[in-house]
Amino acid sequence: MTTTIDTSTLLDWISRFRDAVTEKREWLTELDSAIGDADHGANMTRGMAAVVEKLDGGAPATIDELLKTVGMTLVSSVGGASGPLYGTLFLRMGMAAGAVEQVDSAGLAAALRAGLDGIVARGKAEAGDKTLFDAMAPAVDAFDVAVAREIPIADAARGAADAAAAGRDATLPLVARKGRASYLGERSAGHLDPGAASMAILFETLAAAIAGAS
Amino acid sequence: MTTTIDTSTLLDWISRFRDAVTEKREWLTELDSAIGDADHGANMTRGMAAVVEKLDGGAPATIDELLKTVGMTLVSSVGGASGPLYGTLFLRMGMAAGAVEQVDSAGLAAALRAGLDGIVARGKAEAGDKTLFDAMAPAVDAFDVAVAREIPIADAARGAADAAAAGRDATLPLVARKGRASYLGERSAGHLDPGAASMAILFETLAAAIAGAS
Amino acid sequence: MIFARIRTAEIKGDRTMKKLINAPEDVLVESLRGVALAHPELAVDLTTHVITRATPKEQGKVAVVSGGGSGHEPLHGGFVGLGMLDAAVAGEVFTSPTPDRVQAATKAVDRGAGVLHIVKNYTGDVLNFEMAAELASMEGIEVGTVVVDDDVAVQDSLYTAGRRGVGLTVLLEKLVGAAAEEGRDLASVVELAKRINGDGRSMGMALTSCTVPAAGKPTFDLPDDQMEIGIGIHGEPGRHREPLAPASDIARQLVEPILADLGSAGPAIVMLNGMGATPLIELYLMYGEVAALLEKAGVRIARNLVGNYITSLDMAGCSVTVLKADDELLRLWDAPVNTPGLRWGA
Amino acid sequence: MIFARIRTAEIKGDRTMKKLINAPEDVLVESLRGVALAHPELAVDLTTHVITRATPKEQGKVAVVSGGGSGHEPLHGGFVGLGMLDAAVAGEVFTSPTPDRVQAATKAVDRGAGVLHIVKNYTGDVLNFEMAAELASMEGIEVGTVVVDDDVAVQDSLYTAGRRGVGLTVLLEKLVGAAAEEGRDLASVVELAKRINGDGRSMGMALTSCTVPAAGKPTFDLPDDQMEIGIGIHGEPGRHREPLAPASDIARQLVEPILADLGSAGPAIVMLNGMGATPLIELYLMYGEVAALLEKAGVRIARNLVGNYITSLDMAGCSVTVLKADDELLRLWDAPVNTPGLRWGA
Ligand SMILES: Nc1ncnc2c1ncn2[C@@H]1O[C@H](COP(=O)(O)OP(=O)(O)O)[C@@H](O)[C@H]1O
Ligand SMILES: Nc1ncnc2c1ncn2[C@@H]1O[C@H](COP(=O)(O)OP(=O)(O)O)[C@@H](O)[C@H]1O
Ligand SMILES: [Mg+2]
Ligand SMILES: [Mg+2]
Ligand SMILES: [Mg+2]
Ligand SMILES: [Mg+2]
Predict the structure, then answer these.
(1) What domain range includes position A68?
(2) Phi-psi region of D326 (alpha: psi -120 to 50; beta: other; left: phi over 0)
(3) Which of A32, A9, A55 is CA-nearest to residue A192?
(4) Residue D153 with chain A: CB contacts under 8 Å
(5) CATH code for the domain in which residue B162 is found
(6) Rounded to an integer, what distance in angstroms lies between the CA atom of residue A108 and that of residue C34?
(7) Is the pLDDT assigned to residue D230 strictly greater than 70?
(8) Mutant choice from D11, D20, D310 vs C, greatest count of C C-beta within 10 A
(9) What distance in Å separates the CA atoms of residue B154 and residue B105, rounded to the nearest whole number?
(10) pLDDT tens digits, C76-85
(11) Contact status of D129 with chain A (Cβ, < 8 Å)
(12) How many other CB atoms are found less than 10 A from the CB of residue D243?
């Protein structure tokens, strides 16, 4: 069973994430139609297509370069709210991971935490604002706890994915306080947050990639 | 049984025509939607409302003045193709009838013929062009024949109304060669001409007014 | 207030219309009221529906008058002003104005040098302007008339009402307005107008029908996957209906009949016009398609207009107008114009 | 050709859209191509989607840059030109452009006196422009930013994303553009921009949803007898939905919250803006209603705009913007402007 993550696992993650957002594109857009502007599916698909195209042209050998490339490509291809936020997530993960070729579970935990902090630094979201933060924060927390308990990395990632999904579902009744959905006031309640939905996919595919590497 | 038409019969005609186009407004507009611009019902209703309002303010005592008032009011309140055409019809009828207080059936026949000629002078329509001419011409012809045969005026008017209705129905298969419907080419076939429909109403109400006066 | 509510109820009945209006019968006057409030440089008569310049042009210059049914805004009222029209007469929606009003407008703007009537070729417009011209000449006003008939969707034949007047009307009003402003005499202005009419052609299409306020529902039913090719500007159905197609294909269907009819290539003024409910992002996209096709056919687009200039209420769709343009026309085109709908150099 | 047909088939599938487009993913670039062909006075980069003036302004003057998602045309690209913007950056439909492109535009138009970013208050726009400003200042370009947030439909609170930027953006771009053209320094231009943002408010409504090309169907379902009050410009549902009402009633629902928020009366610049699919005849009618209400409330309308200036694709509806205007603002308003979307005095 694998205990570390290398660039090929990360590449697998990226490519699974691309596939999954592409497949779920209409659903993400539908969620964004209800409380946003109907482009979240298009945004994530466009961004991840650009990322994969970029990496196909030659993937960096170190984790920091790889994740920073992902982040920069998202920043420069997505736009909207999700571009800077997902972009910052990967940029900060890369910076935290450093110029290494693999990270262990603690290293991944630190990178994810740095990514989350980056999102907060950019978007100022707090728990319960009904944003992608609400899916990512519990996932990162769950991963941290699992790592502290020395749970195998694949199981830790699985738990994080489940936590992200639960966090996504918990956005349903919330009244949005950040992003476009906040303009709706009370009318934003009763809908899943699209960013939380794509974030849950990000953790789902991370778990799948790590499981696949095991 | 009446043998002449006086101004009160004409006023009754006008008011019946106003009532009938108002009642059939939607139908006329529907016909004009199919092969025109969806305003014939509104046009005729607006025009006849203006005529009745004008006459309510004091009706002229002679037939020529009465009919010319109707014609001028239509010209200055309807617009579109039907305004000048219906307006000219009444103007020419008035000119033909002269400054009298009543006309006999021959006088009415001559006036109607003059009205028809006026419409042709203005609009250049020929038989089969799918216009109001196609309802009016057979009506005027039928009235002429009935008068020549010394058929009572009420029956003559009834026959004219029937001829107008038949003329209207005969426009159904025609391809329009005048007015807006002509732009449609072959697609104008299979629809009644709206102007022919209002013209049939004009003769129907004339017959009713004369019958009412009998 | 109660009255307003009754009217709402009426609107809400089976005649639900998605329109920013009060009672359907008040649309024209209430819209003109807005024009009057928005444009102090215009004089808007809310009784006769005649729009003139607040500051009339000098004595001795030909005046230019146009008009027709409403529902084509900014045409014609939005083109009143320096370098374009002296007066516009607004009829009810899609219904030509009456002769007395056209005549009143004619009389009001005559500066002693005669008046040009710009008439779109519809039976109603032709007949009402004809009667107006008769009335005006009875009052000693010299009237010249140009009947615009540029729509290649319609067969032009001795046995029909001929082609409709559509998009070219906009270009003609601009160019002829500039000529009149220069002080040319009526005969020369009429001649110019007729030459322009001979050198310009248009073709239009619709993605949706429009809804006439007084009718309360769409003039024609157009299924979700169909479009009409060869429509006019009054919600008349077009010449034929076909499945929705990409913009490139639609552009070809509009450009080809124009070029076939217009013949030779060369410099041109081109308008890509929206029918009222089509947003600019689509109009520019269509312009890209149309311009590419025209240039390929040897037409050099010297000037262009892209936008909603002659509309058909809330119809979605567009039309293309191509006018062959020599140096004189380009000079007249570039002359200052100051109207709500078209403005430059002033 | 085969490719084109495949695309048509796609369009024709369950995503029937009544739009003049080819493939949905090409809408932006193909529309920009049309802009480029129609406006030789603009330089349109079809790769970065940046629109600049073909003739840049003189060295030493502050440059003004704006941008945002597409679908609001003529905003922003249609406001590039003398007296208004130096560059506009067009994002995908309803999606803010990316920082690198905003930065590229900023760098391209900087004339050594710094650059003002006009940003509408949406998280996406704010974040991307923020990153762009960081990038630009790393290159030594001084950037000032104004975030426009004029939409009174949205509660402005410390605990939300605040009010949206809508109609006021148009007026602000015009006024600030004029100030920059006069040669004022960046600090003074930024201060002016913030003052304008503080003195203007907007409110909008929709009769229909819009359809995002990539989504292929209306963003929200709005029954035939309902309207949305308090919408933005991205097809977001509004604050509440209610039965269709007469224009007079709608006008009241738009004007009242603006005045309640803006406070005192006095001279103002007022815009009655169409959302893209509403024809001028209705916009003028609405302007009549709105102007009457405002004047009654003591607002003296010194200048006005009526038309489609900041749209939401093919949405039917309108918005009202009121900006308090002193003599300085009126002078800046009257200064020459020469852009595709707004032009006078030039
Ligand atoms: N301030 C914020 N912090 C964190 N996430 C945010 C913030 N604002 C918006 N989001 C997320 O962005 C998502 C919307 O992304 P997207 O639709 O791609 O961009 P846009 O809102 O610009 O159209 C929302 O569902 C929400 O999860
Ligand atoms: N040249 C013509 N001669 C006679 N009747 C005509 C002519 N042109 C049109 N019409 C009649 O006018 C009717 C249309 O009237 P209306 O709808 O009121 O005017 P418009 O066509 O201007 O909208 C047609 O149905 C036709 O009967
Ligand atoms: Mg979105
Ligand atoms: Mg009609
Ligand atoms: Mg008509
Ligand atoms: Mg967006």
Answers:
(1) 4-213
(2) beta
(3) A32
(4) 183
(5) 1.25.40.340
(6) 64
(7) yes
(8) D20
(9) 9
(10) 999 999 999 9
(11) no
(12) 11
Contact call for residues B103 and B141 (beta carbons, < 8 A)? no
Residue D201: which region, alpha, beta or left (left: phi > 0; alpha: psi -120 to 50)?
beta
Q: Is C153 on the interface with B (CB under 8 A)?
A: yes
CA distances from A96 to A108, A134, C208, D125, D148 (A): 9, 22, 56, 27, 35
Q: What is the DSSP string of D145-207?
A: EEEE--BTTS---TTS--PPP-THHHHHHHHHHHHHHTT--HHHHHHHHHHHHHHEEEEEEES
User: Do D218 and D209 meet the contact criterion of CB atoms below 8 Å apart?
Assistant: yes
> Could you list the active site residues of C?
72, 234
- The single residue listed with the structure tokens 């009829």 is C91
Residue with tokens 């909008």: D204
Question: Could you identify the residue written with the tokens 């709005």?
Answer: D222
> Do D313 and D210 form a contact (C-beta atoms < 8 A)?
yes
Mean pLDDT of C12-38: 87
Which two structure tokens, joined as six digits, stand for D98?
């990316």
CA dist C33 and D247 (Å) reads 13
Torsion angle of C-alpha atoms C9, C15, C19, C24, degrees rounded to 10: -70
What is the b/e burial string over C126-143, where b = at least 16 CB atoms within 10 angstroms of the residue's CB? bbbbbbbbebbeeeebbb
Map tokens 């503080």 to a residue. D198
Which tokens in the block code for residue C186? 């009526």
Taking an 8 Å cut-off on Cβ atoms, the answer to whether D95 and A42 are in contact is: yes
The string of pLDDT tens digits covering residues D13-60 is 444 699 999 999 999 999 999 999 999 999 999 999 999 999 999 999
**Nearest residue to A91 (alpha-carbon basis) of A119, A63, A72:** A72
CA distances from D167 to C289, D273, D290 (A): 30, 7, 15
3-class DSSP assignment, residue A214:
coil
Task: Cite the DSSP H helix spans in chain C.
Answer: 2-12, 27-38, 99-109, 123-138, 168-181, 186-199, 247-262, 280-296, 327-334
Structure token digits, residue C98: 């009456």
- For residue A58, the distance in angstroms to the closest alpha carbon of chain D comes to 22
pLDDT at B182 over 50: yes
Q: Which structure tokens are listed for B156?
A: 């003559």
* Inter-chain CB proximity D100 and A177 less than 8 Å: no
**Contact state of D244 with C12 under an 8 Å Cβ cutoff:** yes
Per DSSP, helices labelled H in chain D are 2-12, 27-38, 99-109, 123-138, 168-181, 186-199, 247-262, 280-296, 327-334
Burial class (CB in 10 A: 0-12, 13-18, 19+), A173: exposed
3-state secondary structure C283-331: HHHHHHHHHHHHHHCCEEEEEEEEECCCCCCCECEEEEEEEECCHHHHH
Task: Render pLDDT for A159-188 as a digit per residue (tens, 0 to 9).
Answer: 999 999 999 999 999 999 999 999 888 999
| pLDDT at residue D130, rounded to an integer | 97
Residue nearest to atom 17 of ligand 2 (CA): B40
Phi, psi torsion values for D23, nearest 5 degrees? -70, 140
Residues sharing a CB contact under 8 Å with residue C24, sequence separation 6 or more, in sequence order = C11, C15, C17, C213, C214, C216
Q: For chain B, what is the domain count?
A: 1
Write the burial class of residue A57 (CB in 10 Å: 0-12 exposed, 13-18 middle, 19+ buried): exposed
Mean per-residue pLDDT for B175-194? 93
Regarding the beta carbon of A7 and ligand 1, being less than 6 Å apart is answered no
User: Considering only CB atoms, which residues of chain A are within 8 Å of chain D?
Assistant: 29, 33-39, 41-43, 46, 75-85, 122-123, 177-180, 182-185, 187
Backbone angles phi, psi at C183, to 5 degrees: 100, 15
- Proportion of chain C in helix, strand, coil states, percent, rounded to 5: 35, 25, 40
Give the pLDDT band (50/70/90) at residue C264.
confident
